[in-house]
Amino acid sequence: MSAAARWRLTALLCGLLALGVQAADPPPTSRDDLIGTWKLVSIDVRTPQGVEPDSFYGAESQGLLIYDKSGWFSVQIMSGARPTLTMPTVRPERPGGAQGPAKEGTLDTYYAYYGTWSFDASTSTVTHHAAGALYPPEQAATYAQQAHVVGARLTFTRSQGTPPHQSVQTKVWARVPTP
Asked: 54 — phi, psi (to 5°)?
């Protein structure tokens, strides 16, 4: 095969590949795409130095996110490395008890809040409007992040900080099948 024929074949294959990539673009995410239960797959942060585990959650995080049709959500995320505690005989254990420092460690490795949510389809942004939270100051917080659903995967991205110290946090969730 001549060099010119190889070049034409390569150009044709590249053109077909480009058309295939365009045809494979997923449809825009809709509000209905978010409804359901999602299990956390990963959380990472891209910084100017590279990709690293999220500093709050660490590696091997676990979590569950639920969106319902009425506009309520609940999210819980825990670090993969949590302190071990014994189950108290009476709940709740009194504050400042024998396991006080260990209890602090459990608080530092767990995150939960709930409230209502809204979705702006024009920007693919989901906003959480917290009504209750593990950390009391966050009970009225509002968190917005880009949301993209492709198949059974939901990906959230949000920028943090300002240049040159800006980072992008990415959370990937997998849809939990209906039982």
From this structure: -60, 135
